[in-house]
Amino acid sequence: MTLTEVLKSRRSVRKFAPQSTSRATVEGLLKLTLTTAPSSKNVRSTRFIVVDDPSTLRRISAMRDFGSALIADAPCGVLVLGDGSATDLWLDNAAISATVLQLAATEAGLGSCWVHVNGRPRVSKAPVEGSPAEPAETAAEYLRGFLPIPAEWNPLCFIAMGYPTEPTKPHSEKDDSDKIIFI
Fold it and tell me: What is the DSSP letter of 166?
């Protein structure tokens, strides 16, 4: 697959076949990501936690009340984190790595979906007016309750991965010329 083919065929996949992903394949994708994703001053601050245990994936899928349920049916996933003790640009570095990981997964025939963690509340609904306001638990705090996340590692997103149940649809052509300025 050429880079253009990878870019054009990568789509968010939310339904996965029950077929498991081999540990060797996932490890290869992560090694490729760690060695090729650019990072500020080459500090390589991105960290990964790989999850392929079905009960843990179900538990992770409950980190938010909207948008994370698909994780329960994924055969595998990767929590992408940034080491805040390595750089204040951990978030940028982790976002680049997550994108490279998704592109590498596409090239390997896997589907993936980015599920945001950083700054997301577990419950998206606002409290009822007049009720006592309690600090809402975040998705990251929830995950820290049962995953081995060192204090200096900050969760950015969870990439659900697996073989898609059906072929992905091509991107629709749009006129985005209004989003570009040449000077």
Answer: S
